[in-house]
Design brief:
Blueprint: H1 11-18, E1 25-26, H2 28-42, H3 50-59, E2 65-66, H4 67-80, H5 86-112, H6 115-131, H7 137-173, H8 177-187, E3 194-198, E4 202-207, E5 210-216, E6 222-227, E7 232-237, E8 240-246, E9 259-268, E10 272-278, E11 281-287, E12 299-305, E13 314-317, H9 324-332, H10 346-355, E14 361-365
Parallel strand pairs: 1-2, 6-14
Antiparallel strand pairs: 3-4, 4-5, 6-7, 7-8, 9-12, 9-14, 10-11, 12-13
Helix pairs in contact: 4-5, 6-7, 7-8
Amino acid sequence: MERSKLEVLNVTEYNLLATKDPNGSYDRKTRENLYWVIEKLRQNIPNLSRLEKKIFSKFKNAQFEALGEKEKKVKFEIARYRFSTNFKQTLKITASGLVALIVAGAFVYQFILDDATQQKIEVAYYQGLNEVGLVSKEDFEQIRTDLDLTFSELEKAKKQSEELNQTIERMMANNKVTENLKYIVKQIYRDPRAKYIKNKKEVTLNFNGKPVAKYLTNSNLWYILGVVETGVIRLYYDNEEILEFRTIFGRKGEETPLGEYKIKNRVFKPTWYKKEIKEGRTRVRAIPFGHPEHEIGYWWLGLKKVGDQVPGSYGIHGVNVGKVNEFYKKNFDWRNGSAGCPNVQDWNLNFLAEVVPIGTPVNIVLKDKWSNERNTPPSAA
């Protein structure tokens, strides 16, 4: 096929779709590839060539079936013709064996073969298409390059995952979880192997099925200290500092009020109430989580002032995860600080929200009041 007949698809994608039945049955990977090609056509309808419009018209409502469904239909046909002639019986056995072979092959390919073997099979498959003229030599070489790159990236990701797992296990074995907790919570943030297991009395942080750390949900054991001058929050558990991380406090004119607080609530995917000045008047606009302008992260830990109240609403919250550089810029340029609330990166905030109980005391101070070597929180004075 001449490339000039295609505007959106390449030859490989076109041949993959053109050789299929809109109501055919294919393995999971083939169906995913077919739906991807159809969606690519759908999103580029104005740019389709005449040939691509024709094939899109044929496949736009395609409903491919899984091989498992095809196997059920074959078995149904076998039941219908079980009393037929020997010839039909032979056809039935042959068809059943063929389907079983296809299903078994697909299963072995998908769940048993390693990435390297799968890559070799895919290269051989496309090489076969190349030999019969369905894939050009240039496309075949591009496919081989893409597969090599994909395999390399998979191997890299697998290695990094194994290294992370070994690092955390080594920390646990050396009983250095507290010393390395800052590293751990950042590395496992949004890793599906990380789970917070909760009950009425305690929260356990698990990684890869193994407990990393365990904490009681007694607020008397917890203490949070915010130090405005150095821009950090320190988290204490049972009189031991377990975590310290960079924090943005209020900018000039909107300083974070100093004093003692307690955590009064926690909200997941909170609405952000942003103060704005419009036509000379201050107004508050509600911005829901997921909106492009939403910038307070996944969690809100509301703070209640102890003693003399302060105007406004304050809480520990996150930042827009797409603005990591702005987070660090704010730390070093106080003109771009927060509107008063302590801002932290989401991986640290997520840990706070999962393990720190409601009622935990929080103290916001201007400067450190004790030596780091003492490793104990300051008095409530």
